[in-house]
Amino acid sequence: MISPVAEKNVSPKHLAFEYHPKPFFDIVKRIFDFLASLVCIIILLIPFAIVAVLIMVDDPKAGSIFVQERVGKNGKHFKMYKFRTMVSDAEERLASLQAMNEADGPVFKIENDPRITKIGKLLRSSNFDELPQLFNILLGHMSFVGPRPALPREVVHYRPEDKLRLLVIPGLTCSWQVTGNRNAVSFDEWMEMDRLYIMERNVWIDIKLIFKTFLFFFKKSGY
What we know:
Layout: H1 4-7, H2 23-58, E1 65-71, E2 77-83, H3 90-97, H4 118-126, H5 133-139, E3 143-145, H6 152-155, E4 171-173, H7 187-200, H8 203-221
Parallel strand pairs: 3-4
Antiparallel strand pairs: 1-2
Helix pairs in contact: 2-5
């Protein structure tokens, strides 16, 4: 499914910055993504099972995996997987919380979101809730490194320059993801980080971002 809003103005001929296709890099990246995600999934199968049980014990009304529609490369929609960190009716409560939104741009963010469960707070503090996206990487919906996949309701409000981030496959991690206080980063700064990655993307940048993500993960986990 291609979103008409996402599809418009995504072509490189509309870009105000230098975009260069990198087919060899894309092939290397995909091979790495497939093999690394497969290995990670095998290693994490038991921890995944334990976390899934803990989530269901904490909130029996909801499943352990949260499936949400996101926008990927060229505006193509896909189902993204996360461990559930919110109550089962979180989406229904969203409208009543809009006035408390602390983020600028089309993004919704509350530092102490009342919809987050007890186990959800622990999973978010360690970023473990994001790891089911390894299955998205295995399937080719996502990559280890790339702009974070946006929600369709956010993309509807994108400006032409924001849609440039839809030129590449979205990622599990990115420059914004490893920023110390990322909630303090403005929407425009976040978009600029993604545009800079798209322009300069290469194997070495991906390696550095993956390494920074591991350091960030262990720091947040307290190790």
